[in-house]
Amino acid sequence: MSDARSSILTKLRTTRDAHPLSPPASDFAPIEAKQWPDQERLPRIRRLMEAVHTEFLDATESDWPAVLREFLAREGVGSLLYAPATEAGKRLVEGWETASPSPPRGEAPHESPEGPAAHPPHPNPLPGGERGPNPTLIPYDRPLEDLKSHLFESIEAGLTTTRGAIAETGSLILWPTADEPRTLSLVPHIHIALLRADALYDTFLQAMREQGWAQAMPTNLLLVSGPSKTADIEQTLAYGVHGPKRLIVLVVHP
Amino acid sequence: MDGNAPDFAAASRAALADPQLRGNFRRAMDGLMSKRAAQFADTGEWTGVRALAASVRLRALSKLPELLEKLEENCTRNGIAVHWAATTEEANAIALDILHKANAKLVVKGKSMVTEEMHLNAVLEKDGIEVLESDLGEYIVQLDGTMPSHIIMPAIHLNTKQIAHLFKRKIKDAESREDAAYLTDLARRVLRAKFQAADVGMSGVNAAVAETGTLCLIENEGNGRMCTTVPPVHIAFMGLEKVVETLEDVPPVISLLPRSATGQPITTYVNMISGPRKDGEKDGPREVHLVILDNGRSGIYADPELRDTLRCIRCGACMNHCPVYTKVGGHAYEAPYPGPIGKILVPQIEGLAKRGAMPHACTMCNACVEICPVKIPIVEIMGRLRVEAVKPGGAVKDGGAKASRAEAMVWSGWAAMNASPTAYRIATAAMSRLGNAAPASLPMLKEWTNVRTKPRFAGRTLHDLARAKGVPDV
C-alpha cells in the first residue's frame, strides 16, 4: 500500500505547488477573550453541567471519602471501582476506614486477595440510623481482560480524578494513566469524578496551553461534560445510552 | 444518462408526497436551527471564532502533504499503525487484512461517514464478519436496513412510533413501547454485550493532529469511547483532509462543530487518542490503526476553486438550513452525504455522469454559506459544478457528462440574440405577440410548465414602454 502513499502525496504536492494557498493568519484572540472571574467559574461549570443532568457534591480535602461513602450508601450503590495506586485511591481507602463504623476485621474488601468476585455488598448498617448497603471498594489493579465481566456486569460505580474543569463549556478534563485506567470513567453505570475547586480554567485552549499538553499527550485524554446522552430518537433527550447513566462531580474545596 | 444514476427528481417527488417524512424533518430541522441560533447569539464571538476556524482549515490545506507526513510520523512514534488508501476498495482491503490477522468475528463501530463512503459494512458481512453500528441512530438505521438520512442524526427521518415498531420486530423480548427512554435503554442492553465481546472497534476521526499524532473524536453517547477503548484492536478511518497542524487548532474546530450541528455548547465526550495501550497500562486497545483515505479527494484538492470543499468539518448545519434538504430529507439524494455539502462533495467523488443532477438540487439561496462554520463557498462551487457537468474535459470526474447539443444550441442562440439589438428587438416583439398563444404543453416548455404556471407575456416590451415615455435609447 506504500504505492498509494507516494502517489497521494506526490499528487497533493504537485497540485498544491501549482496553485499555492495563502491562508489568513490564525487569530486566537476571540477564544482568549473568553474569561470569567475566579468566583464565577465553578458556578458556571455547575450550571452548564447540571443542565445536562450532572450531579454535584461538595466536600473538603479531609472529608471527601466520607461524603462519597455516605452518598453511595444513600443511593444504594453496592460497589465502587477505584484506582488503588493513585494518591486519591490511597486517600479513599484511609477515609473509608474512618467513615466506616465497624468494618469486620479481615473483611475490608480492598484487602481481600481474591479480587472482585469475593466482594458481595456489605451488610453493615450506616451510622445515624440510615440503612443501606455498605458500598464495597473494588481496586482496579489488573488488566481489563481480567476484570471485563465484573466491569460490565456487576460493578456499579467508578471513581476517577480530574485535571481540572473548563468554565466555557462545563467540561471535566480526564487524564487516564497506567494507575487510573480509561474504562474507570466509561463502563460503570455511575462515574464519580473528583474536581479540585482550585483547578479551573476558562477555556479548552487555556487548559492545554497551561498544562503543556502538546509536549506529552497521554494515550487517551478526555473532556467529559455530562453523563452519556442521545437525542437520536426523534430529538428526545435520553440519558445513559452507552456510557455512564450518571455523572457525579465531587468538588473538593481547599 | 447513466443507467445507474440515482434519479433525484423521482426520489424527491416521492419524499414530498410522504406527509409523515415531511413532518418528521420539519420538526427536527426547526428545532436544530433554533438551538444553533441560540448558541451563536453573540455575533461578534461567532464572527471571530468562525474566522479562526476557517483559517485553521485553510492553513491545514495549504500544508496538506507535509501535515499528512508529519501525522504519519507522529502516529507511528506513538504506536499507531498508519495505512494509506487511494480508493475505497483499497481501504476495505486494508480493513479486511487487519480483521483477518486479528481473527475477528465481531466488530463494533462508532459513527464514521468515511466507512459509509466505503460501504464497509456490506464488505465485512460478505466476509462473514458480524458488524454492528453502535451510535443509536446508526443502529436504528442498520436494523431497518436503510441508510443514514442525515450525517449527524442518521435516524431523523423516523419518529418514536416507527422506531418502537422496528425494535419490536427486530430485538428479542422487546416490548412495544413508544417511549424514547425505554427504547434507549433497550439498545443499551443489546449493545453493551457487544462492546464487551467485540474483537475490533472501528471509528471515524473528527480531527487528526499532525503535531502530536492524536486522533480526536467527539460524541454524546459513549459508544465512540467504547469502540476505541474496550476491544483489543481499534481501526480509525479518516478522509485525508481531516488533518490539522497543531493541538491548539483543535479548540476552534471543537468550539464550532457541536454548536453548529446540534446547538449544544460541547458534546458529552471529546476523546483524544494518542496511541494504543502502553506497557503497564491496564486497558485500551493493544493495536490502533489509522486508515487515511483519498477516494477522489486529491483530485478535488488539485483545483484551487473546488479545493474549498475539503475545508468541511462535517457538522451538517448546511443540511438543517437547506430549503431543499428540509423538504425532501436525506434519502432522496441516495448518497452518503446529502444536503448542500453532499451536492458539492459527492459529484466530485463519484463523478458527474452518476451525480450530475445533485448540483441542480439547489435554489442558490445561500443559507448554507451563511451558517457554514468554516465559510465554504458552497453555492459558488455548486455553480462551477453545473458548468463542469456540460463542459467536456474539465477538472471534475466525468466532466461534460450532461452536455447536450440541443442545450448548447439554445444557449448560443440566446447569446447571439442578446448580442445584436436588432435580433433582440425582433425576438422580444415576437414573444410579446406570440408567447401567450404558445400552449404550455409544448415539448420545449413542458419541463418548466409541468410544475409551474406558464407566465403571461405583456402585450408590449419594456423597451417599447420606455420609449413611449420618452426614455432615449442608449
From TrEMBL, chain A:
Top-level taxonomic group: Bacteria
Q: Which Pfam families match?
A: LUD_dom
Q: From the UniProt entry, list the residue stretches annotated as the region Disordered.
A: 1-35, 96-140
Locate the LUD domain: which residues? Answer: 46-252
Output this protein's name. Lactate utilization protein
Q: Which organism is it from?
A: Azospirillum lipoferum
From TrEMBL, chain B:
Q: Which InterPro entries match?
A: 4Fe4S_Fe-S-bd, 4Fe4S_Fe_S_CS, FTHF_cligase-like_sf, Helical_ferredxn, LUD_dom, LutB/LldF, LutB_C, NagB/RpiA_transferase-like
Name the UniProt key words of this record, in alphabetical order: 4Fe-4S, Electron transport, Iron, Iron-sulfur, Metal-binding, Repeat, Transport
Q: Which GO terms describe its biological process?
A: lactate metabolic process
User: Do you know which PROSITE patterns this protein is assigned to?
Assistant: 4FE4S_FER_1 (PS00198), 4FE4S_FER_2 (PS51379)
Where is the 4Fe-4S ferredoxin-type domain positioned along the sequence? 302-324, 353-382
> Record's superkingdom?
Bacteria
Q: Which GO terms describe its molecular function?
A: 4 iron, 4 sulfur cluster binding; metal ion binding
- Residue ranges annotated as coiled coil are none
PANTHER family listed in its UniProt record: LACTATE UTILIZATION PROTEIN B
Protein name in UniProt:
Iron-sulfur cluster-binding protein
